[in-house]
From TrEMBL:
This is MFS transporter. Pfam families: MFS_1 (PF07690). The lineage of its organism: Bacteria, Bacillati, Actinomycetota, Actinomycetes, Kitasatosporales. Its main location: membrane. Residues 14-459 form the Major facilitator superfamily (MFS) profile domain. Keywords: Antibiotic resistance, Cell membrane, Membrane, Transmembrane, Transmembrane helix, Transport. GO terms for molecular function: transmembrane transporter activity. The chain crosses the membrane at residues 12-36, 48-68, 80-99, 105-126, 138-160, 166-188, 200-220, 226-246, 267-290, 296-317, 329-347, 359-387, 399-416, 436-455. The keyword Transcription regulation does not apply. InterPro entries: EmrB-like, MFS, MFS_dom, MFS_trans_sf. GO terms for biological process: response to antibiotic. Signal peptide: none annotated. GO terms for cellular component: plasma membrane.
């Protein structure tokens, strides 16, 4: 049984390590979008290159995050966490010195691999290290400090882009890793899961990532209308079918298909796809709209969206408690509708947009929508499966959300007629942005209708979320796995 107490020096070092590690990945997910217009200008990159700058990271992260958690269970959570931090920092250094867009995209893909190794390990280390009496408070502090980091991220990213330059958005990860790794090796106890057995589903992970990569390539390059694009699309669908076939037949699949026998689990994951596809598209395009069309600086654009993150930091726990009392159906219906309303309000954000009159109302409505839906979404996912599979269910849900954002970033410019040079033209980008917000709002409304029609009250005996404070906007919180036969306890701040 884990026995480290939170008040002890070792407990504080463990908390610091996990906060630093998770903050590296969380910061990158929130600040890179702010830097995109400057990256495009400095590297003479077209819109497709900017799409790949975002998607290369999400592709490897979404495709490998389930495998990353399994590696930690098998070979040691601290070991895999440290490898992930070092890998992430090395890839960040390569991003920071990239001489052209091609190298930057490749480095971002490598970053995603590091993220897939370190992201599941942060919470797993807390679960495996702290005494049960302190575990809930430790998770609460971890998620709270992570929320503060997420809130600071866009402001910090904008300041770096306007000041030292966009390369420092990536280079900042190197000193964080230099602090994190020695502390982890000295103060964090090693842990694993002795019950882990069987082979790793490397083939399943490879097929899943390949399918996403080929479909993403086809969507981004579809404007060319070439034979290569058609072949990529067909091959991507074929790889997806092969992935399902492999997962169905393997004795130890990465994603056991029988987990989808739960109707509610399946439905909530479809709602997740709707919500995070819209959010992925929004956060990719909104910061470019604010800079290219409205004339904001990178710092101004990053700070403009900050109220949504602050609302999540302050109110997520209360939203989760309310959903516990009234059930998830209403929050999962109202939340997406509020997000849709926020995106429609963004139609007012054009040239010389006023922050107080035009931007802030949209961001506040969107923020309240996120507050309303994220905590109940996670709770419903965990409650839809057996307690022993709660960690797996959360991992699938997290990966689904990231895959949805990946596809949205690839597809929205195509669907809205956004040309390769659109981000250099305020008029062209503004027109396409308006069409994109309407599409995103429609997808959110579809998710709300599905939730209202199908989601039911949670059973009294079920797993509860560990993370009650969550500020990430690219995916729902990644919950950990039960530790040695214990049921995950409700905790957090």
């Amino acid at each position: 049984m884990p026995d480290v107490r939170l008040a002890s020096p070792q407990g504080k070092w463990i908390l610091l390590t996990t906060v630093l590690g998770s903050s590296m990945a969380l910061l990158d997910s929130t600040v890179v979008n702010v830097a995109l217009p400057r990256i495009g200008r400095d590297l003479d990159a077209d819109l497709a290159a900017l799409q790949w700058t975002v998607n290369a990271y999400m592709l490897t992260l979404a495709g490998l995050i389930l495998l990353g958690g399994s590696l930690g269970d098998r070979y040691g959570r601290r070991k895999i966490f440290v490898i992930g931090v070092v890998w992430f920092a090395a890839a960040s250094l390569l991003c920071g010195i990239a001489p052209n867009a091609g190298v930057l995209v490749a480095a971002r893909a490598l970053q995603g691999i590091g993220g897939a190794l370190l992201t599941p390990g942060s919470l797993a280390l807390i679960q495996a290290s702290f005494h049960p009496d302190d575990r809930g408070r430790a998770v609460g502090l971890w998620s709270g400090f992570g929320g503060v980091g997420a809130a600071v991220g866009p402001f910090l990213g904008g300041w770096l882009v306007d000041g030292p330059g966009w390369r420092w958005v990536f280079l900042l990860n190197v000193p964080l890793a230099l602090l994190c790794v020695p502390v982890a090796l000295r103060h964090v106890p090693e842990s694993g899961d002795g019950r882990t057995h069987g082979r790793f589903d490397v083939l399943g992970a490879a097929l899943g990532a390949l399918s996403l990569a080929l479909v993403t390539y086809a969507l981004i390059e579809a404007r060319e209308g070439s034979v290569v694009v058609v072949v990529s699309a067909v091959a991507g669908v074929a790889a997806g079918i092969a992935f399902v076939f492999v997962e169905k037949r393997r004795p130890d699949p990465m994603m056991p298909l029988d987990i989808f026998a739960s109707r509610q689990f399946t439905v909530v994951n479809v709602v997740t796809l709707c919500v995070y596809a819209a959010l992925g598209g929004f956060f990719f395009l909104a910061v470019i709209q604010l800079q290219v069309v409205s004339g904001y600086s990178a710092l101004g654009a990053g700070t403009a969206l900050l109220p949504a993150t602050v609302l999540m930091l302050l109110l997520s726990a209360r939203s989760g408690a309310l959903a516990d009392r009234i059930g998830p159906r209403i929050p999962l219906t109202v939340g997406p509708l509020l997000c849709a309303a926020g995106m429609l309000l963004m139609l007012r954000v054009g040239a010389d947009a006023s922050y107080v009159a035009d931007v802030l109302p949209a961001v506040l409505v969107l923020g309240f929508g996120l507050v309303t839906l994220v905590a109940p979404l996670t709770a419903t996912v965990l409650a839809s499966v057996d307690v022993a599979r709660a960690g797996l269910a959360s991992g699938i849900n997290n990966a689904a959300a990231r895959a949805a954002g990946l596809v949205a970033v690839a597809a929205l410019p195509l669907l809205t007629g956004m040309g390769q040079e659109a981000y250099r033209s305020p008029v062209a980008f503004d027109d396409a942005f308006g069409r994109a917000m309407v599409l995103c709002a429609g997808v959110l409304a579809a998710g709300a209708v599905l939730a209202f029609a199908t989601v039911r009250r949670l059973p009294p005996e079920c797993a509860h979320p560990e993370c009650r404070t969550h500020c990430g906007v690219t995916a729902p919180p990644l919950e950990g796995r039960p530790v040695r036969g214990r049921v995950p306890e409700g905790g957090g701040s």
